[in-house]
Amino acid sequence: MSGDRPGRRREMAVLASGPVLGAAVGVVTNIITSTWNWWLFSSLLVLITLAAVGAALVPGSDRTPVSTDDDPPPHRARVNTLPPEAAVFSGRQEELRRLVESTPELSASRPFVCSITGPSGSGKTALAVQAAHRLVARYPDGQLFLRYRSHSEPAGRLSAQDVLASALTTIGAPAPQTRFGVDDMSGQWRSAVGNGRFLIVLDDITRAEQVRPFLPNSRHAMVIVTSRRVVAGIDPDLHLEVGGLTRDEACSVITAVLTRASHDIDTSVISALAEIYRLPLTVRHVADRLITAPDGSGLRSGDGVPHRAGDDVNMDPFGWSVTALDTRDQLVFRRMALHPGPHVTGETAAVLAGIPVEEADRSLNELHRRGIIGRPDPHGYGVHDSVRALALRESELHDSSSSRTAAMRRLFRLTARQLALANAAIGSPLVIDLPADAATEPDVPTEEKAALEWLEIYLVDFRAVARLAVDEEWATTWQLTCGLSYFLRIHRNIVQAEELNESSLHLAVTTGDVLGQGCSHSQLGVLHRCTGRYRSALGHTQAALGHFETLGDDRGRAFCYAELAVIHYHLAEYAPARNAMERAVTLHGRMGGLRGVANGRGTLGLFSRATGDYAAARVSFDEALGIYQSLRNLRNEAWIRIELGTLDRLLGDYPSALDQFAAAHAICSDTGDRSGRAWAERETGITKRILGQYADAQALLEGALDVFTSMDSARNAADARVELGSLYRSMGDLAAARRHVTDARDEYERLGNRRGTAWANIELGVLDLREARWQAATERLEQAGRTYAAIGDRSGAARVELESGRLALARADPVTAREHLQRAVSAYRDLGTPEAATAQDLLSGL
User: Fold this and answer.
1) Could you tell me which of 41, 48, 40, 43 has the C-alpha nearest to residue 15?
2) Which of 160, 199, 249, 749, CA to CA, is 20 to 30 A from 542?
């Protein structure tokens, strides 16, 4: 909006240049032709001026638009998760028009909120989806359909945390690792959406608390919510209440469906049915049934049942349609309702009904053909809540309690086996070995990328089955919860994984299942470690190790030793960390687990580098790199290349370091690893700072910090802040440097990361030195020195000696300065790093 914006100034410059350039070209043209032609001169003047206007104002010019508080961002990755729009949509034209033509007030400061209410089966979702598809052009940054499933079975219902985690992942901003409360996740959502033009559909809500976390701080967004009743606290800008159709509207829906299917039915049949059935759910089913029963048989009772208002849907036509099914199809219909998730596949229907998959597929196709169930996406069949309720009532009438229980047990076993196979495909560090209990193995992708996509599609289903197993107190629920943990962790659904594993641990303790206790404790240990709760992580992992030791389970023991090593590393306890990792490597080697050996070697390299043994670190990293390359494990190859680049940087080989970081960055870009890419950029930024390339370093480090912050990767963000502090100090901005380093130190202290805290204290001490705060600098350096001595970090200890020498020089204390600098020279020479020359130059100047 400001007149001096760079983009606006460029537009004005181009516009102003048009007439001048046109006149110049006209003059030159007339000179060349040796004839003064006023018509030619004027034409060239006009044409070139118009071209300048087009270059300045037409979209697609090479300038980058500058957004303001009133304008949405110029570009954002397009996201669309809307279900397909209905091929036949009739009877809601006025409501659809009001939705599509509604516009927010220019003075609004929040998104435009529309509420659609009505009883079950009244077509609320269909109306919302139909309108959303027509509004795509108005909201180009993203259209998200988020379903709460509030009226499904309890295990299948989604919380605000569930839906937020999914939405954050969908738009490329994974849900937090360390702060997973609704308020924190909502803040991250609003930050990610920003001022963009987003359309968000929240389906099947019952409380305002399900809506508020999704409301962006922008008037450029629109939120459509559907609910059975008016929900207090939403305060919509537009409220649409839908119910039964009129007789004419019902006739139009039935006629439109029949016309599309090329069926010609007697209008008297259509009119008679439209007189009875008015809710869109039953009207649509009546139309589908007419295609298979043109005379309308089986659709009208003797007395006729009028349309009923409220939530009491007239399900008679569905009931009559089910009665007309053969025995097998009725069985599949009843049993599929026991599945708590949104997708029913041939495999799940087969195990629930206790029949072969081929027969289950045929039944699902028949149910779909008769309009009893739907297919909302290519990944399975869906059941409307009211139809599911009918199926459950049928199951209670025709199936014994024991047969329903047996069906659910089969579902639990199938899901556990599916998760075990998927974990093996995606490289989970702890795969539960579950034998198949059926002649046919589940159809699970075996390639890593495909398996990850498959897990993403069916996550809601698997999580619902796991929660159902918890509710049913299935003895081996841990097979499900542990099978889900790794994917939930990389998906950033930490809170859900923790809740599920705590429940399964309780069941395993109650039943005395030692293996279940070991697996549940081990997963809880990882989850606590990922969220910075190192001491509790240590307790869980040690408990798991004890259970695996009792069972003689080498795979479990190796997993626990590797986890203990990482926890001790974060606590800067390097001796026990090395001991635990060496045990893990030995066990993996004994079992022939190359990936486990490579993970261990790479982590041992970290320990060696942290304690200043750079030669041993290189040997470990090289061994790990060779194994990862033989396994074609690209993501871990990138990790090792970053570690090797860091080692090269510490040793002063900056060209080699930059080459390693570039190779890692390319791999992470190809594999979609945002964290790895940011890590490579951070390390490149550090190297650029050392080389004095401050502008490049600033862009790289700030970009990395933004990514780590958006992913809530606390320790990585703290590392980036310290490096930014060093950069700003080098650039002379001491205030910015102190702000970044102080924030980093606070985060390290919260995480219990002693090494990071010592590093931040050194940087703060150097800033104190620059500002002549001698006492504060002395105290910080002494504190860091004590920490490095306790954890055995030779590189950190050498840095303390160097900075203490500089401090003594600033305080005109040459004797003390000489003592510190001599120790610094000796330490850096042992490490083989270029800082030895720096310390020697200072020493020579005394």
Assistant:
1) 48
2) 749
Percentage of the chain lying above the pLDDT 90 cut: 54
- Yes or no: say if 328 and 337 are a contact pair by the CB < 8 Å rule: no
pLDDT of residue 3: 38
Helices (H), ranges, 37-107? 38-57, 93-101
Structure confidence at residue 256 (pLDDT): 83
Report the half-sphere exposure of 93 (CA within 13 A, side-chain side). 9
Q: How many CB atoms lie within 10 A of CB 624?
A: 25
CA end-to-end span of the chain: 59
Rounded to an integer, what distance in angstroms lies between the CA atom of residue 70 and that of residue 217?
12
239 bridge partner residues: 115
Q: Provide the pairing of β-strand 374-377 with 380-382.
A: antiparallel
pLDDT average, residue stretch 370-379: 87
Strand, coil or helix: 80: strand
| Contact criterion met (CB below 8 Å) for 149 and 163 | no
Distance of alpha carbon 843 from alpha carbon 846, whole angstroms: 6
Q: Specify burial of residue 109 (Cβ count, 10 A radius: 0-12, 13-18, 19+).
A: exposed
Amino acid at the residue 38: W
Distances (CA, A) of 189 to 171, 280, 716: 9, 35, 20
Report which of 687, 717, 689 is spatially closest to residue 704, judged by C-alpha positions.
717
146 in Cβ contact with 214 (< 8 Å)? yes
Among 579, 576, 497, 572, CA closest to 530: 497
212 pLDDT more than 80 = yes
CB burial string 685-700: b at 16+ within 10 A, e below:
bbbbbbeeeeeebbeb
The DSSP code sequence of 163-209 is HHHHHHHHTT-PPPSS--SHHHHHHHHHHHHTT--EEEEEES--SGG
CA dist 761 and 813 (Å) reads 22
